[in-house]
Amino acid sequence: MVRRIIEQTYLWILLILLYAPILIIVVYSFTEAKVLGNWTGFSFKLYESLMNTGAHHSLMNACINTIAIAFIAATVSTLLGSIAAIGIFNLRARSRKAVGFINTIPILNGDIITGISLFLLFVSLGVTQGFTTVVLAHITFCTPYVVLSVLPRLKQMNPNLYEAALDLGATPMQALWKVIIPEIRPGMISGFLLALTISFDDFAVTVFTIGNQGLETLSTYIYADARKGGLTPELRPLSALTFVVILVLLIIINRRAGKAQKK
């Protein structure tokens, strides 16, 4: 009984530490106070100001750039990572272990090392840094996560299904599309969402590959804003909306996964 109380208390303390900062941001997004922690009454003015693109043109541009980069990087890395996972899975055991080890190096490697390496690569190739280099950089560090998400689904798949499809007259492309893709689709979705989150949240790699053409993402905007001595109050409703969107997506995905398991 005492052990159960201690375990539940520890769990609640951990949840409070994790979600209290987010809850504080959500609560104070409904007041127009410039300083976080100063409640001046319930108001939607920060949300109204956020939607007014003319007042916060740079912030909205940073949001649009961040979303565009995240979706492009997540989509491309999902395609590349899924193909790479299929190729790795079909290798011999020793080669599979070697390539799998190489795939984990970018994940274990520090973001700042990845950012510096890509920066030096783009400079040495004479590539002008901007939107394209940021997207390429995000694809580079997101793809290994997709590979790790898809590989377990391939290991769970019946290896005879693909051969059976070929024996029944399907072409390799048809067997890939009709047999393998449906089997690994949950892993691809998980990899896409993981890549989307990592790209959306990245700062270290982005700041090294963004160049000096005036391009800003949300992370670089917040960093520059914080260096000025404070954060734009409209970042509070933006953070609250982002949290709600992610929460809704997770609920929908978990419900669909639960229904699929019941079937």
TrEMBL record:
It comes from the Bacteria. It is a multi-pass membrane protein. SUPFAM superfamilies: MetI-like. InterPro entries: Bact_Polyamine_Transport (IPR051789), MetI-like (IPR000515), MetI-like_sf (IPR035906). Keywords: Cell membrane, Membrane, Transmembrane, Transmembrane helix, Transport. The keyword Transmembrane helix applies. The chain crosses the membrane at residues 12-31, 67-89, 101-125, 131-151, 192-215, 235-253. The keyword Cell membrane applies. Residues 63-253 form the ABC transmembrane type-1 domain. CDD domains: TM_PBP2 (cd06261). GO terms for cellular component: plasma membrane. PROSITE patterns: ABC_TM1 (PS50928). This is ABC transporter permease. It comes from Phocaeicola coprocola.
